[in-house]
Specification:
Elements (H helix, E strand, L loop, with lengths): L1 H88 L4 H6 L14 H7 L11 H4 L11
């Protein structure tokens, strides 16, 4: 009987060692998975922060591109207005220049305030179809651009 007791005890010890090794291995795998999950979570937070920085940088660059383009338009309009004024000074008429395909330069827009802006901007036309500015003799054509 000593042999069967000894065999039983040896089998139980082997089974317990196997279970403990399996449990230790499972606990180790769980620890590694937990660390991987924590690293991935930090990675998402880092990516979110970096993504926001990239979007902000891109918006600043886009704003600068638009501002640069608008500055180019403003400079080109000023050059065109000066050339128009020089052509008028050289004896050309606005009609002749427009007949050549040139457009009358627009006046720079200026902010107006209060009653003056409301009084100077026609809001309707009368029965003749003319606005108050047209009735006063203003044709809307700019003869001289400053």
């Amino acid at each position: 009987m000593a042999d069967s007791k000894s065999a039983r005890r040896d089998a139980e010890r082997a089974a317990q060692a196997l279970l403990e090794n399996t449990m230790v291995k499972a606990a180790g795998e769980l620890g590694a998975a937990s660390a991987t999950r924590a690293d991935a979570t930090v990675g998402v937070d880092s990516a979110r922060t970096r993504g926001a920085e990239l979007i902000s940088d891109a918006q600043r660059q886009a704003d600068q591109l638009v501002a640069d383009a608008q500055a180019s338009v403003t400079a080109a309009e000023a050059t065109y207005a000066a050339a128009w004024k020089s052509a008028l000074a050289a004896g050309w008429t606005p009609d002749a220049l427009t007949n050549l395909g040139h457009t009358v330069p627009s006046r720079p827009t200026r902010a107006r305030s209060g009653r003056r802006a409301a009084a100077s901007e026609p809001s309707s036309t009368d029965a003749s179809g003319e606005s108050p500015a047209e009735q006063d003799g203003a044709s809307g054509v700019i003869d001289d651009v400053a």
